[in-house]
Amino acid sequence: MGTPSVIDTRARGPRLYHVHQDHPLAVALLAELAIDHSIRYGGTAGAIHRRLRDCPAADYSAPDGDLLVLVDHGDPVAGGGFRRLDPATAEIQRVWTAREHRRGGLATRVLAELEAEMVRLGYREALVTAGDRQPEARALYRAAGYAEVGSGAACFFRFAKALGAGARQLGTTTPGAAARTHGRGRRRG
């Protein structure tokens, strides 16, 4: 859980941290995601938060997954994660941007970083599901080159994308420029 060490002091805007599910930044992100889902789909934020936290933390940790959080002035403003479905396929989940920071490209940056990590880990395909009450998420995935591959349950849309060199062209940062944290994560500027 340690304190992030700053490598690139010239970096501007939100800083990227790769963290464990129990890291305080991840806990805050999951709490906000639970509130957002409860508003969109009903249910209590507490129950949704418990479901998010009950997912095995190892699913979103190296060597098979990742969980990242963008932090601006000490507060988590966006994030997301992925986990292994099979040796070639990763599933993106937990993508979220704080309401007051939406429409500023943060979700695109998160998606680009997730894709870069998936490529680095050898995944060849990314899958993601977005709900019918998340039109901005569906638009994000379409804009990033994801193709709709059918729907799951009545209120979910599934998307897929082949990964490779094209994934590195997304977003506003150069994926892979790493800094380290002490403890359970690493930071990127």
UniProtKB/TrEMBL annotation:
Pfam families: Acetyltransf_1. Keywords: Acyltransferase, Transferase. Gene3D superfamilies: 3.40.630.30. Residues 7-164 form the N-acetyltransferase domain. InterPro entries: Acyl_CoA_acyltransferase (IPR016181), Bact_Acetyltransf (IPR050832), GNAT_dom (IPR000182). PROSITE patterns: GNAT (PS51186). Residues 170-189 are annotated as: Disordered. It comes from the Bacteria. Residues 171-180 have a biased composition (Low complexity). This is GNAT family N-acetyltransferase. It comes from Nocardia fusca.
